[in-house]
């Protein structure tokens, strides 16, 4: 690595792309600390100490008491909290003000920290420092137990349960006259339900955090450290003060370090810490006495966006600036996912309906029943009935199932080596319809190798060049080959691991960019690199940039004139070239004919082999020619500028073609994405013919597909009607009707594979109009070549503007802006630390096929949640609210008690609803089009028709049939005597006593309860599939088995026996013994539900455009 002297002043470089949003509070505290440190000298010490603030701080016992009894006004509390915050800031500022690491000289720093720039730290010293400073990790945020307990017990639906509990308690005493123990028992039961749900929330929060921590620990993160005289890769947690750390583009700063060597183009992104969106140049000398503002410090959390540097660790863990500020701010609240918001909206809607219905029942009692039928319903009965509707109307298992579904999918993705950093990503993946991916490392294997070499009058295979021209020393190389070798070996940022020197060069692992690694291997094969290290000295390096598309190095043989070596894209360097070397080593003027030959060679290699082609150049100065580099040989900063200004009159020494084979699985992966209605766009910095060839290799462009360019885009933009008509026949609308299994295979073939693909270069994207971007967004396949990071960001934003849900893959720091702008940023596991940090998802195996698994998992979670809701709603809504309606409006004794409704809601239905979240897909979800998250939510009109208009009606009729049949069989009471009974249902009615009537109602209510439980068994199988026959979704064996689902049957039977057969529950909660025949009478109705549902699914499959298919959920 070439390390240069630094600039003497602070320089800020505008950043044209978006940076990661910092934590606003972290950024605010950073700037507050900076200001306090900066003006410390101007303030008197007495003012800094602010003794008057101590009077504002309450004693500890008063702070605790103030949580219960407000001893201060709100203004006083806020003022006291602000003063405490300022005191904490002042303490941190005073601590940072004492630090002198940025002001000390480099040698003094080495002495102070007891380290060496040659050896680094030794093992014994590392162990001592670990004992003193601990591990390089930040302390976790405070637990905030008070807020957690409040969230578990008093938020969500629990708020209404507390209200219901109070009402039931009041209905027992003092409203109850006489007091009814059942109301008191219901209050106790509701308290138990609240505690059970709170305990589950706490347990689930712990399980989720542990699961996310376990998969986050799979993310590979390393730092290059000098220890015992050797560079080695270590986990950042192992760093200690005094370690020498090497950083390069894409690395994340692992601790607070003082820069001791920097490249001239070093840029540090501190946006996460300071909130400043622009990167700043790193320097050797201090640029400010303020510890937080100087440019010779790199703080933990910063990113190296360009260049290279070496630094000495001065602080780790909580002693870093990030650690100190982290103790001043609270952790960010967990962001709710769209599905969580949607489920909460559904729960709120159901709660509103239940409140309205419960209020209506109470009003009907107050204005009608109380006067028209006195004695039919007491005040306590009316209140208990109204509140009972609120308690039982909302499915209690729904929030639980949502959380479990997300966690289950996250664990499923973990098995496939997919790291998901937050649950929001899981659901967003299911809606992705465009993937913008890089070529190198994503579509290809990143096993780049040199395959062809070209000169002015000859081209040959790289293997032949090595076989004919290899030499043990540089002097032994032929003149033309020597010039090529110098560019390959010296204009290169990759390095070999010295411990692997015994391995053949073509098999040796190199560290660095894939292109540089390939060129380094070729150079080693021509002549050992140690010969070049002895012979040449590197004076300055201008690293490769996608914006410039070239790399430059200034070198010199010892005691000789410096010369320039350049490599890069031919179209970027050829305009600066005036000479070319021949195979013999002779240098001739670069004529138009030779220029065309080079361009033809590049085009041919790209179109026939998909090779990445680089132009190798040099510029040397004769003795009688002024050498602008000579005067600045001892001034790296000046040499840096002079070399860039001297980029003219270059001599072409050769062309090199690099091949990178596509991944073995990529063609099948592209086919799978196409079948799923997902378009794959290639966004690369490579030459357009190279990118097109690789796109054909990967199956993105078929042999029969016509390739269009920017001219056709402009033509489509001028004819929007024709273009939109073509789009309507395309992938999405053509697949919208693919709802049934029989059409899935046909639909998977009805893509736009035969439609023209688009290949466009970055220069052609300039000044495009809105209509032209509309045309680009309608193509099935797009290849964007010679793209800069800004243009890649532009592509993503234009696609998002047109309603696409975009996922962007990347592995380098240049990919980060586009990854952050996309709906889902996906990093490769072998990519840079900055890319992995910026991404919401990491493919640990670096395979695009894993992304297909993630998208399938996101779709599966959404489908399974719909199944859970379709299972819960018919029972918890219609089947339970109708009995209350009959009781209030039609004068029936209540057919199903509030207690038994609560048992169904919180016990018998919960197991099946949870297990349904683990269902395997009934068909290949990657044969369906992506979901439009705006238009297709969890529930809609068709969903409610299925839940209430079909399943709910059948279950309600079955439950009431069991109720009336039990009254008739056990008490001889016909239904006509039950309807409109109102206050007649008392002593002497039909010759029965009040106790006998109550016993019959309790028994019939329990029969009603058992009928609903059995009907839910059938509904459980109904909900497993949306349009596939239940017989093809076997729960016991096969790829879609779910044997835990059947466990719900014995659980529900046991629950029914427990609450209905034990005398204590009969006496307190007014349940009854279930007649034995009512364990079997509902079974035919359950089979009828299954039969009708099978018939509906059959008609949907057979008539996919019929009315049943259109209203199918």
Automatic annotation (TrEMBL):
Entry's transmembrane regions: 152-172, 184-203, 346-368, 388-409, 868-890, 896-918, 947-970, 997-1022, 1043-1062, 1074-1092
MF-aspect GO terms: ATP binding; ATP hydrolysis activity; P-type sodium:potassium-exchanging transporter activity
Keywords: ATP-binding, Cell membrane, Membrane, Nucleotide-binding, Transmembrane, Transmembrane helix
Domain of life, source organism: Eukaryota
Keyword set includes Transmembrane helix: yes
Biased composition (Basic residues): 1-10
Region (Disordered): 1-25
SUPFAM superfamilies in alphabetical order: Calcium ATPase, transduction domain A (SSF81653), Calcium ATPase, transmembrane domain M (SSF81665), HAD-like (SSF56784), Metal cation-transporting ATPase, ATP-binding domain N (SSF81660)
Subcellular location: Cell membrane
Protein name from the UniProt record: Cation-transporting P-type ATPase N-terminal domain-containing protein
Protein species of origin: Coemansia brasiliensis
């Amino acid at each position: 690595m070439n390390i240069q002297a630094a600039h003497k002043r602070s320089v800020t470089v505008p950043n044209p792309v978006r940076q990661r949003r910092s934590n606003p509070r972290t950024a605010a505290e950073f700037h507050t600390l900076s200001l306090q440190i900066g003006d410390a000298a101007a303030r008197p010490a007495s003012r800094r100490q602010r003794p008057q603030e101590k009077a504002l701080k309450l004693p500890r016992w008063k702070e605790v008491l103030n949580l219960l009894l407000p001893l201060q006004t709100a203004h006083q509390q806020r003022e006291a909290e602000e003063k405490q915050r300022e005191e904490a800031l002042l303490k941190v500022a005073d601590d940072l003000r004492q630090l002198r690491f940025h002001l000390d000289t480099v040698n003094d720093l080495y002495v102070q920290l007891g380290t060496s720039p040659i050896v680094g730290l030794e093992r014994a010293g590392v162990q001592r420092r670990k004992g003193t400073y601990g591990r390089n990790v930040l302390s976790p945020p405070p637990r905030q137990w008070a807020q957690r307990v409040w969230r578990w017990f008093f938020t969500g639906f629990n708020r209404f349960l507390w209200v219901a509990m109070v009402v039931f308690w009041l209905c027992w005493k003092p409203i109850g006259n006489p007091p009814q123990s059942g109301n008191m028992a219901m209050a106790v039961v509701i308290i138990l339900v609240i505690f059970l749900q709170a305990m589950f929330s706490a347990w689930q929060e712990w399980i989720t955090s542990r699961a996310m921590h376990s998969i986050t620990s799979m993310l590979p993160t390393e730092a290059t450290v000098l220890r015992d005289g050797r560079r080695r890769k270590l986990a950042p947690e192992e760093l200690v003060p005094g370690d020498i750390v090497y950083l390069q583009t894409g690395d994340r700063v692992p601790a607070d370090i003082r820069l001791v060597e920097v490249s001239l183009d070093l840029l540090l992104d501190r946006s996460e810490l300071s909130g400043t969106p622009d990167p700043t140049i790193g320097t050797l000398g201090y640029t400010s006495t303020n510890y937080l503002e100087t440019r010779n410090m790199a703080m933990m959390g910063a990113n190296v966006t360009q260049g290279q540097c070496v630094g000495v660790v001065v602080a780790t863990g909580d002693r870093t600036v990030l650690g100190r500020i982290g103790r001043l701010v609270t952790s960010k609240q967990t962001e709710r996912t769209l599905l969580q918001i949607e489920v909460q909206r559904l729960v709120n809607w159901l709660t509103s309906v239940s409140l309205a219905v419960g209020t209506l029942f109470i009003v009907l009692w107050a204005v009608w029943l109380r006067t028209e039928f006195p004695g039919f319903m007491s005040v306590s009965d009316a209140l208990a009935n109204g509140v009972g509707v609120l308690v039982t109307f909302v499915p209690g298992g729904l929030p639980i199932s949502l959380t479990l579904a997300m966690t289950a999918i996250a664990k499923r993705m973990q098995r496939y080596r997919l790291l998901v950093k937050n649950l929001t990503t899981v659901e967003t993946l299911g809606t992705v319809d465009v993937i913008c991916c890089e070529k190198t490392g994503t579509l290809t294997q990143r096993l780049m190798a040199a395959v062809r070499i070209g000169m002015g009058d000859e081209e040959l295979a790289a293997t032949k060049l090595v076989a004919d021209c290899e030499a043990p020393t540089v002097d032994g190389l032929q003149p033309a080959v020597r010039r090529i070798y110098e560019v390959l070996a010296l204009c290169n940022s990759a390095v070999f691991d010295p411990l692997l020197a015994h391995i053949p060069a073509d098999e040796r692992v190199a560290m660095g960019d894939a292109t540089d690694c390939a060129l380094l291997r070729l150079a080693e094969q021509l002549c050992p690199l140690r010969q070049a290290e002895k012979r040449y000295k590197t004076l300055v390096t201008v690293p490769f940039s996608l914006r410039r598309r070239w790399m430059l190095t200034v070198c010199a043989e010892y005691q000789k004139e410096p010369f320039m070596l350049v490599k890069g894209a031919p179209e970027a360097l050829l305009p600066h070239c005036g000479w070319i070397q021949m195979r013999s080593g002779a240098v001739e003027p670069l004529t138009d004919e030779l220029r065309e030959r080079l361009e033809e060679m590049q085009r041919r290699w790209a179109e026939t082999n998909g090779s990445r082609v680089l132009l190798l150049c040099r510029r040397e100065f004769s003795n009688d020619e002024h050498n602008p580099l000579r005067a600045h040989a001892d001034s790296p900063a000046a040499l840096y500028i002079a070399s860039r200004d001297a980029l003219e009159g270059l001599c072409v020494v050769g062309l090199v073609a690099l091949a990178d084979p596509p991944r073995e699985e990529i063609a099948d992966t592209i086919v799978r994405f196409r079948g799923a209605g997902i378009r794959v766009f290639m966004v690369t910095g490579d030459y357009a013919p190279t990118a097109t060839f690789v796109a054909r290799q990967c199956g993105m462009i078929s042999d029969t597909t016509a390739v269009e360019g920017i001219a056709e885009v402009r033509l489509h933009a001028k004819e929007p009607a024709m273009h939109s008509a073509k789009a309507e026949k395309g992938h999405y609308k053509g697949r919208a009707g693919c709802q049934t299994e029989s059409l899935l295979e046909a639909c998977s073939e009805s893509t736009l594979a035969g439609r023209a693909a688009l290949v466009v270069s970055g220069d052609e994207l300039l000044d495009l109009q809105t209509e032209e971007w509309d045309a680009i967004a309608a193509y099935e396949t797009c290849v964007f070549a010679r793209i800069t990071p800004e243009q890649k960001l532009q592509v993503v934003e234009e696609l998002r503007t047109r309603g696409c849900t975009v996922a962007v893959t990347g592995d380098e720091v240049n990919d980060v802006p586009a990854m952050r702008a996309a709906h889902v940023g996906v990093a490769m596991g072998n990519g840079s630390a900055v890319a992995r940090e910026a991404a919401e998802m990491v493919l640990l195996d670096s395979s695009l096929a894993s992304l297909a698994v993630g998208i399938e998992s996101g779709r599966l979670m959404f489908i399974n949640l719909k199944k859970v809701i379709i299972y819960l709603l018919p029972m918890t809504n219609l089947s339970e609210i109708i009995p209350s309606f009959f009781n209030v409006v039609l004068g029936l004794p209540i057919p199903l008690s509030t207690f038994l409704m609560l048992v169904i809601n919180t016990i018998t239905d919960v197991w099946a609803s949870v297990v349904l979240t683990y269902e395997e897909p009934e068909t290949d979800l990657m044969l369906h089009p992506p979901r439009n998250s705006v238009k297709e939510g969890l529930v809609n009109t068709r969903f409610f028709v299925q839940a209430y208009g079909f399943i709910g009606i059948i279950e309600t009729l079955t439950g009431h049939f069991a109720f009336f049949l039990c009254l008739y069989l056990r008490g001889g009471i016909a239904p006509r005597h039950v309807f409109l009974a109102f206050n007649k249902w008392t002593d002497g009615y039909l010759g029965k006593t009040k106790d006998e009537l109550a016993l019959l109602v309790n028994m019939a209510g329990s029969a009603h309860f058992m009928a609903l439980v059995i009907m839910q068994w059938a509904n459980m199988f109904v909900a497993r599939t949306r349009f596939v026959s239940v017989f093809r979704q076997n729960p016991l064996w096969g790829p879609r088995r779910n044997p835990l689902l059947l466990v719900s049957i014995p659980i529900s039977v046991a629950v029914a026996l427990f609450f209905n057969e034990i005398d204590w529950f009969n006496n307190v909660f007014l349940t009854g013994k279930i007649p034995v025949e009512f364990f079997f009478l509902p079974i035919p109705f359950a089979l009828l539900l299954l039969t009708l549902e099978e018939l509906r699914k059959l008609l949907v499959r057979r008539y996919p455009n019929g009315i049943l298919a259109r209203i199918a959920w």
